[in-house]
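User: Please fill in residues for this 85-position structure.
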């Protein structure tokens, strides 16, 4: 996932402005094998604080001891779709 994009706002900025924002990741290879493969991620508040208050670099993340588990939180709510047409 790219956090910065030269041609538009970053996901971190989007999440800062849209409180219920999530990033959906779709795996078409696994989906072709028979089950839909989706992940819904959000950046944690700990990461967002670093992003808002300091220059965002890999070194900053290391200095703040932010690991993968400290940066992303997985949130998925699945609604049953069986029997709907």
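Assistant: Residues filled in for all 85 positions:
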């Amino acid at each position: 996932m790219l956090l910065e994009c030269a041609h538009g706002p970053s996901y971190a900025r989007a999440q800062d402005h849209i409180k219920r924002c999530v990033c959906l990741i779709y795996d078409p290879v696994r989906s072709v094998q028979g089950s839909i493969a989706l992940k819904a991620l959000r950046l944690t508040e700990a990461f967002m604080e670093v992003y808002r208050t300091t220059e965002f670099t890999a070194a900053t993340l290391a200095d703040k001891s932010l690991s993968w588990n400290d940066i992303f939180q997985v949130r998925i709510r699945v609604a049953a779709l069986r029997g709907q047409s």
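For context: The chain has one domain: 11-74.
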